[in-house]
Amino acid sequence: MSDNKKEVKIERIGTCAYCGQIGHIEASGELSQAEVDAMATDMCICLDAVNAKRKKVKEAKIKEFVKQKFVTDEMCNFLNEAIELLNKDDFEEFTFKQYPDKVTKIWKDNSGSLNIRIRKTESDEFKA
Known about the structure:
Structural class: alpha+beta
Largest sheet: 3 strands, antiparallel
Strand content: 25-35%
Oligomer: single chain
Shape: elongated
Distance between the termini: 77 Å
């Protein structure tokens, strides 16, 4: 005898965090009201909700770039925290000097886009 359990979907009502529009959410399992509201916000097409979705997409893209360029989890986590702080508008930019010849700068431009620049510089300094 197989364990084919039928998944029951429950309709819940959520509210957009930005405009207050009500959305009907169909979900399986137990969800808190905060989770339902977050889903309703994600479905909403008001300007603020759309801008928030764009912001999340931009953040995800730059975090993926960081993951590709920095091999250690510790450095990725550190840079991802900086990205989140920039997205919250707590800071304008961060500049990190990882090695004597490697500098990473993360900033938000006037349009609100996140930017990252990894620059390797050659030093004329020599020590024997």
